[in-house]
């Protein structure tokens, strides 16, 4: 009995209550509650307003949350906390057969990526040939703003998340074709959201075109996108949608029920 009490006491000493409360604050936000006031967070979590304020201010200071003067919302950086899961073998294993099928059907390289901070991170890939001047593989990072994968994900985020992203990021010209005007970029994201796919034509690198679709999960959120990349010399821009979109959409729809 004494050993059991000592064991429980040891477990209590090892339990970090402040971490528990911080995680409760993060978990207070979801698809139905993307923006919360300080009072909302205190009520949902059951902690005091003073404590909720400290946790929210800390999250904001660390760029895991945004604050507009009244409402708090989680920022894209929060995805880093889930990256270990999203890039895990289990997820990659589930995605890989779909990417390989896409590549088999189209003869082109296909990839899956998440948004991590202001970049995309590749979590699965089926490469048929080298299409960029740099090698790409699982874990590779690229700027979200000039990639079809990044745009497909960004286009399906809440407006405040998009604005927070644009307030942080400078749209650097990677090529003369890169969109660097933020108003034009907003319009491109809206077009991508409405049509259900994003197309990038030599904005990341000369000679590279890509098209991506969002992977909409059962809760309606978009954290993953799928794409096909092709060399501009082989595939005209006018043919990207007709040749590649059916395979991408088929995979996206199938994955909707498996992830």
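^ Assign residues to that structure.
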């Amino acid at each position: 009995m004494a050993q059991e009490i000592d064991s429980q006491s040891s477990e209590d000493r090892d339990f970090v209550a402040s971490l528990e409360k911080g995680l409760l604050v993060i978990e207070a936000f979801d698809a139905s509650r993307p923006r919360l006031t300080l009072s909302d967070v205190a009520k949902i979590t059951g902690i005091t307003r003073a404590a909720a304020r400290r946790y929210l201010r800390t999250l904001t200071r660390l760029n895991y949350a945004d604050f507009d003067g009244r409402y708090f919302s989680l920022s894209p950086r929060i995805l880093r906390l889930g990256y270990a899961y999203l890039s895990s073998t289990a997820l990659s294993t589930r995605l890989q057969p779909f990417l390989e099928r896409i590549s088999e059907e189209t003869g082109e390289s296909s990839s899956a990526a998440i948004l991590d901070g202001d970049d995309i991170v590749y979590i699965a890939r089926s490469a048929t040939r080298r299409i960029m001047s740099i090698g790409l593989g699982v874990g590779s990072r690229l700027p979200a703003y000039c990639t079809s994968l990044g745009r497909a994900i960004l286009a399906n985020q809440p407006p405040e998340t998009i604005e927070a992203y644009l307030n942080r990021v400078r749209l650097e010209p990677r090529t003369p074709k890169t969109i660097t005007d933020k108003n034009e970029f907003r319009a491109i994201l809206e077009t991508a959201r409405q049509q259900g796919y994003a197309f990038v034509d030599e904005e990341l690198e000369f000679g590279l075109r890509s098209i991506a679709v969002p992977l909409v999960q059962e809760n309606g959120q978009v954290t993953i996108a799928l794409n096909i990349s092709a060399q501009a010399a082989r595939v005209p821009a006018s043919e990207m949608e007709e040749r590649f979109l059916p395979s991408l959409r088929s995979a996206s729809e199938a994955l909707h029920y498996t992830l």
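The first strand starts at residue 65 and ends at 67.
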